[in-house]
Amino acid sequence: MFFKLxxxxxxxxxxxxxxxxSWLLPxxxxxxxxxxxxxxxxxxxxxxxxxxxxxxxxxxxxxxxxSIAGFYHRYYLSMLAPAIAVLVGAGGAMLAxxxxxxxxxxxxxxxALVATYAFEVWTAxxxxxxxxxxxPLAVGFYGxxxxxxxxxMEGREHGRRxxxxxxxxxxxxxxxxxxxxxVLYGTNSTIPYAGPDxxxxxxxxxxxAGMPDGQEERLLRGETGQPGDGARRWQTSHLLTALVSYLExxxxxxxxxxxxxxxxxxxxxxxxxxRAVMAMGGFGGTDPVLTPKKLEEMARNGEVKYFLLxxxxxxxxxxVQWIQTHCKEVPFSEWNGGQKALDGGVERREMTLYxxxx
Length: 358
Prior knowledge:
Blueprint: E1 3-4, H1 25-42, H2 47-68, E2 71-72, H3 81-98, H4 108-125, H5 134-152, H6 157-171, H7 173-185, H8 198-201, H9 215-220, H10 230-233, H11 238-250, E3 256-260, H12 263-270, E4 276-279, H13 292-300, E5 306-310, H14 317-326, E6 328-330, H15 332-335, E7 351-355
Parallel strand pairs: 3-4, 3-5
Antiparallel strand pairs: 1-2, 5-7, 6-7
Helix pairs in contact: 1-3, 1-4, 2-3, 4-5, 4-6, 5-6
């Protein structure tokens, strides 16, 4: 359940990653050029240069990793944010000063603006199915105006300060809107991301195992609609409350209220009880957390008594087989709290409760 991408140095500038943490990377790239030119011009490295170099040392390895790694989730890119923020903030001030220091460096700040505005407009326009291109084009023309004003204010320090601030505000306009989209439209709660396409996709928890071909790509784009994801489809159902109530009444002194194969199912139970819930297969249900022998030992010692299995994508087949062989299925009518089998979209076949009686 990771993003599978081609290994290329420009992957962060391509969709769907470009709209996440890459907005200001062109600006940071020009800052790197400006840093080198300023060190060469001064023939020494000041404390400020070392400060910027530190943050490039943070950013560089991450850029290399995300460019060559063939798989990861989009929200991993948030690790780039601190370094990019510092380099744009502090580095932008350096570029503005260099622009007034001589002919060789006067182009750096305008170049950073042009590159960044152009990349942002291009990225935003790729989402024209969910986002009107009028707005990114307006931002682009605004940026072009700022560049023209920057050159027009040559020799006017106060005027350039105003243009500098206005230009950076414009640079942040589209990223600011993108960062608000999860709040405005909701996002995928398991693999969160940002973008105007959330308006139509409306994120939801993601099934993490047993997905048919093509489903992974749709989920990575934030699309949902996979039928039968038990952990998702019962999220707002009274069945969950009824199940937790039943378990708390019958689990006794067991260490765990119940055990599930996947963390997504365990998380739903954890939110409704103060008791511990065990995810036997880790996040996606396939991690070798427990062996059948270890699970049997825990059951015999009274650490775990109840097991909740999902009807699809059961993941760790050895554990599932042990549970089905050594445990007894609890009839749906005993723990459903009087709810109908289809209440909240939860069908009986999707969630099965087992009890270990020794």
